[in-house]
Design a protein that fits this description.
The strands form four sheets. Strands 1, 2, 3, 4, 5, 21, 22 and 23 form an eight-stranded mixed sheet that branches. This protein has an eight-stranded parallel sheet with strand order 6-12-13-14-15-16-18-20. β9 (133-137) and β10 form a beta hairpin. By secondary structure, the protein is α/β, with parallel strands linked by helices. It contains 17 helices and 23 strands. 30% of the residues lie in helices and 23% in strands. The protein starts with a strand and ends with a strand.
């Protein structure tokens, strides 16, 4: 299919249904990748390709606004450690993992925030021996290495826990993710197909490498599963300026699939690594208030350069001190963009957040995954933890994402977490922060703004169950009948 398509007998369930007079099946005519007409079923005559929706429910294409693409794609090759309930169990699991072709053993997804014991180098050495072994925290802000890995990577002088944190941990992730182009591109293509099967039509790529050439190469090699906005980090800021990149511009040589995204600035750590910058100490460490990894002067300077160069900014700020510092700098510079994560926000910062027009790019599944850790380690914090409804009520624009591989890249897990605030049989965690399914669908569309209307880009998803009436488990496992990208079918269920 080439972008001209008649979608027959579908019901509009997402943004755009408010423009329709009745909840009856409609036909949607797509011309050159754009919605050209919407009419009651049987009223549009055309000779183009047809897809019978058979009464399924159509919503705008789903976006994940925070993905570490290559790391997410390579995650399928690594030992999952999310079920480990202790350091001892994590070490035992990784001992049974098969090595990668380069003889390294890599595990991912452990959460040590509530473990009864602590990671140590000696414990991991006893389980892994002389084979270089790497365990990546679920939050990616720390990595647990054995002695062989520490020697290999040039970090042998670290503490006896064998943990690298923040920038050192990111450096290890960059090295682990630096796969051969053929291997990385194949993994990204396979992951893109999986994403399309869940209704994804676009994502914001926060890989820590410079990705302009990589995305050109992938598109030239046939990648066409979804749209991409690629971010870059401060190490590549001057390069982006020299190459004349501007946020929102189409990246040449990518057939309109790839656009330039924002400058990513990581200003604090994370909850799981206990480095998110908070106003009050972590409950298990009275001297630990987290860390600010970019100071206020440097942050203002970077945002000033970005704003003057036509570049949006995506400011990683998890703790309330980091969020406040980000808002200070954004006020001073009038830079545009997002605050990524915003997991702990002071009440007093809500109104200026809204006045600035800065977007809160949040990951609802983190509230489900981290609820026990947040309830324990952040129990003394006075700011709002994992706000959602509060942000929206203050008039702050909100976009949803997963932070994959920190959480699975599945927009329906994200939507369910936002609507129900639980991923199991427990009651909702802070139910006052729940939102409606309609709001969650909107926040999961491109920039939180997509709608099914004449003139809109024809990125669409056909759901086999009405999402507006689906329960928690139906949302989480939503069956996708088809995913359509600019009128071209990328998945057919």
């Amino acid at each position: 299919m080439t972008g001209d398509l008649l979608l027959r007998a579908t019901r509009v369930a997402g943004p755009g249904r408010e423009y329709l007079p009745a909840d009856e099946p409609v036909d949607i005519l797509i011309r050159s990748g754009v919605i050209a007409d919407i009419a009651p079923t049987g009223n549009l005559a055309t000779t183009c390709e047809q897809l019978d929706a058979e009464g399924t429910w159509v919503i705008p294409g789903l976006w994940d606004h925070h993905v570490h693409t290559v790391q997410w794609a390579l995650d399928a090759q690594r030992m999952p450690l999310g079920e480990a309930s202790s350091a001892v169990q994590a070490a035992r699991l990784i001992a049974g993992a098969a090595p990668l072709p380069d003889d390294r053993v890599v595990g991912t997804g452990f959460r040590d925030g509530l473990w009864p014991d602590r990671p140590t180098r000696a414990l991991l050495d006893a389980a892994s021996g002389e084979r270089p072994t790497y365990l990546i925290n679920a939050d990616v802000h720390s990595v647990w290495l054995n002695s062989a890995a520490l020697r290999r990577e040039g970090f042998d002088g670290v503490d006896d826990d064998g943990l690298l944190r923040e920038e050192d941990a990111f450096e290890i992730s960059r090295r682990l993710n630096a796969a051969d182009d053929i291997v990385a591109d194949a993994a990204v293509a396979a992951a893109g197909s999986r994403a399309a099967a869940r209704g994804i039509t676009g994502l914001v790529d926060f890989d820590m490498a410079w990705n302009a050439e990589a995305w050109r190469r992938r598109v030239a090699g046939g990648f066409d599963a979804h749209r991409v906005e690629f971010a870059f980090y401060r190490a590549d800021l001057q390069r982006a300026i020299r190459e004349g990149l501007r946020s929102g511009d189409e990246l040449a040589g990518t057939d309109g699939l790839v656009r330039v995204g924002p400058l990513k600035l990581i200003t604090d750590g994370s909850l799981g690594t206990r480095t998110a910058a908070c106003s009050h100490a972590y409950a298990d460490d009275p001297d630990n208030f987290g860390v600010l990894t970019i100071g206020p002067d440097e942050l203002r300077d970077l945002l000033t350069i970005a704003a003057g160069s036509g570049l949006d900014a995506a400011v990683h700020a998890i703790g309330d001190r980091a969020v406040a510092q980000a808002l200070d700098a954004l006020t001073y510079t009038q830079a545009r963009g997002t605050i990524e994560h915003a997991q702990l926000v002071r009440h007093a910062d809500l109104m200026r957040f809204a006045r600035l027009g800065i977007v809160a790019s949040v990951q609802p599944e983190h509230a489900v995954d981290d609820r026990d850790m947040a309830a324990d380690l952040w129990r003394d914090q006075q700011a709002i933890g994992h706000p959602l409804a509060t942000l929206l009520s203050a008039g702050i624009p909100v976009r949803f994402g997963s932070d994959a591989p920190v959480a699975p890249l599945d927009p329906w897990l994200t939507i369910s977490a936002a609507v129900h605030r639980t991923g199991d049989e427990r009651d909702a965690w802070h139910p006052e922060e729940r939102v409606s399914t309609e709001i969650a669908l909107g926040a999961s569309s491109r920039h939180g703004e997509a709608s099914i209307a004449v003139g809109a880009t024809a990125d669409l998803v056909l759901c086999a169950v009405d999402p507006l009436r689906a329960g928690r488990e139906e949302l989480r496992s939503m069956p996708i009948a088809a995913t359509i990208l600019g009128g071209r079918v990328t998945h057919l269920g």
